[in-house]
């Protein structure tokens, strides 16, 4: 069973990328993470390990975003993203995201 299909009682905001068209996916993820306040988390669910996305997130947010795998299996990947600090991405990083 995919971890995103299990009920939660915590305050983690769910983002199921499996239902978002690929051409919109990265922009939607960046937008969702941009509005999280420090201490808030987003649970990201996908059908594959998004290694290129994780590299982009590290460049864009640095230490302001904590990344923790909840589930990492073929066909079922769940990652918690937790905002640890507030701040907007730099303009150079914003161009990277917009070009995606």
The gist of it:
The protein has helices spanning 22-34, 51-61, 91-98; strands at 13-16, 41-46, 65-73, 76-83.
Binned strand content: 25-35%
Gross morphology is globular
User: How many helices in DSSP terms?
Assistant: 3
Largest beta-sheet details: 4 strands, mixed
Write a structural description.
The chain is an alpha+beta fold and 100 residues long. 32% of the residues lie in helices and 27% in strands. It contains 3 helices and 4 strands; from the N terminus they run βαβαββα. Strands 1-2-4-3 form a 4-stranded mixed β-sheet, with helices on one face. Strand 3 and strand 4 form a beta hairpin. The radius of gyration is 13 Å and the shape is globular. The N and C termini lie far apart (31 Å). The C terminus is likely disordered.
Question: Any descriptors?
Answer:
3 helices; globular; 4 strands; single chain; 100 residues; alpha+beta; 27% strand; 4-stranded mixed β-sheet; disordered C terminus
